[in-house]
Amino acid sequence: MSSESGAGNNQRLQGKVAIVTGGASGIGESVARLFADHGARMVVIVDVQDDLGNKVAESIGIQRCTFVHCDVTDENQVKTTVKSTVQKFGQLDVMFSNAGIPSSSQQTVLDLDLSEFDRLFAINVRGMALCVKHAARAMVEGRVRGSIVCTASVAAKNGGKAYTDYVMSKHAGLGLVRSASMQLGAYGIRVNSVSPNGLATPLACKGLGLDAAEVEKLFEPFACLKGVALKTGHVADAVLFLASDESEFVTGADLAVDGGFVSA
Predict the structure, then answer these.
(1) Which InterPro entries does this one have (predicted)?
(2) DSSP notation for 185-251
């Protein structure tokens, strides 16, 4: 069922409590809306974009969604966000660690700017590790057979002629997912990731200086599947599957949402 078709009959997250980082826009916003459509008791949107985050939460409905300002690079903020979620809503069933940024320049190894490298790794790697760590601790303490889903990328499995820092960060994220899935399986906690191809999120459009249609056209050659453009809703559908009990025996997996990615 597509996220763009609204609330459905199949409530796949009925009664569950979920945190969605980077939930104020793009993939995170689509996931937050889809989780609420599928019966989540509460969706906690985590972001640093306060105005956008509050607007999304209000549009979903304050009975089902709330916004929390949290910088995922700050361990105290992540820990407090997870702890307050459990205190207010009783448990944490799903963590979607999605907050991330693209490379600010087409960095190559020969020209690597370590200040930019450190900023990107702080969000894409450190932030993800903190979200997985504290969500897992809450699930273990609450004896919840939870699901943790991380946003990876097609860049997590391929090298690149540029954007070295971004490619490295996504490889690191995939390593985290694989290690965490092995370590947390004993507690019944599943850890998986989704790997989309490039798509027209607000952040991508801003970074590339293009509108949504132009971004979709830019990435079209990288998919062997023609006749459909990758949307945030397609990624959200994959995240919903991994978050729900329909993927009860799936862990350590990276679900590609890339139209059959090819290196052009």
Answers:
(1) NAD(P)-bd_dom_sf, Sc_DH/Rdtase_CS, SDR_fam
(2) GGGT-EEEEEEE-----HHHHHHHT--HHHHHHHHGGGBS--S----HHHHHHHHHHHHSGGGTT--
| The two three-digit tokens of residue 64, written as one number | 């089902």
Q: Of all helices (H) and strands (E), which one includes residue 42? A: strand 42-47
Average pLDDT over residues 1-25: 77
Beta-sheet pairing, 42-47 with 254-257: unpaired
The predicted-structure confidence for 150-175, as pLDDT tens digits, reads as follows 999 999 998 989 999 999 999 999 99
Q: Are 257 and 239 in contact (CB under 8 A)?
A: no
Residue 122 DSSP label:
I
Six token digits for residue 198: 């490039």
Using the 8-state DSSP alphabet, how is residue 82 labeled? H
Identity of the residue numbered 236: A
**Residue 251: φ, ψ to 5°:** -150, 150
Mean pLDDT of 14-20: 98
**Can you tell me which residue has the tokens 């459509």?**
37
Please say whether the beta carbons of 43 and 18 come within 8 A.
Answer: yes
- Asked whether the beta carbons of 17 and 90 are under 8 A apart, the reply is yes
Quote the CA–CA distance of 215 and 217 in Å, as a whole number: 5
